[in-house]
Structure formats: C-alpha cells, structure tokens
C-alpha cells in the first residue's frame, strides 16, 4: 500500500470513526471482491480452507492453511494465485472445519503410526482412543507431551499428502470452469 493511500485511509478513519470505517473497509476490500470471485476462485479457496482446516493439531490449522495458500500460489500464473478475497474465504472455511478436524485427528495419527510401523518394522503404539479428545480438552499440555509421537506422525501424513491434495485442488479448480451455469 502506498503511503498516500495509508494517509487517506487514516483520515477517513479519523473522520468516520473506527467502527464505521472498519465496516466500510470490509465491504470495499473483502465483501465486494468476494462477490466478484469466479467459480474457480471460490472452489479453490474453499478446498484449500477445508484441507488446511483438517490439519492434525486443531490449534494450528491457521498456519497450515496459510502454508497451503503459499504452496498453491507458488508456480502458477499470477491470475491463478490467491488474492485477499480467496484467502479470506479459505481462512473462514478453515475455522468452520474444527468439528471435522477433531474427528479426523485420530485417523491421521493412526495412519502415521501404521506407516511408521511398516517402514521401520517396529511396533509403535500411541493408544489413540476417544479418551484422547477428552484429555486434550482437560489437560492439553500433558496430552501433547504424552501423544507427541502420534501427533508428529499425523502431521507427517498430512504434510506428505498436501502436495497431492493441492494438485487435485488445482485440477478441480480448472474443471470447475466447465460446470454448467455461473461464471
């Protein structure tokens, strides 16, 4: 943002007040551009928000979503990169994915544990159970310490699948142009 634009926005905020200025800024910079999004942009941003939202450690889904946004935008033409409205949609959907994230977290941990056991010919057992979610709510620090290997393996499974999933999202975005109706 240019210095003149910053000064102009600060003067508008001073003239209108903080709340009205924030509402106007949000409409101008988030709502209106989001309404102008193409179907491809909406499909891609929602899909990236979903994938980032099921990161195996619930408090860390936002950095995972931002990583996915940067990873997706790397190596694509400028017109297909994430813009502010697309990132906003991805972040909102990421936050809405918490219930699914809590359901899938033990699955990622079990997949990681299974892959580790197959690759190393060992018998690592992290005891993933329904008690894990209750312990996570009651004593988060102790639970993370006790299940750190399982969480780490779950993160590795998610990270290994991320390039494949983001590639599928790229294909899905390209195919969404051919769906009937809309833009």
From TrEMBL:
It comes from the Eukaryota. Keywords: Membrane, Transmembrane, Transmembrane helix. The chain crosses the membrane at residues 42-72, 84-103, 147-166. This is DUF2062 domain-containing protein. It comes from Polarella glacialis (Dinoflagellate).
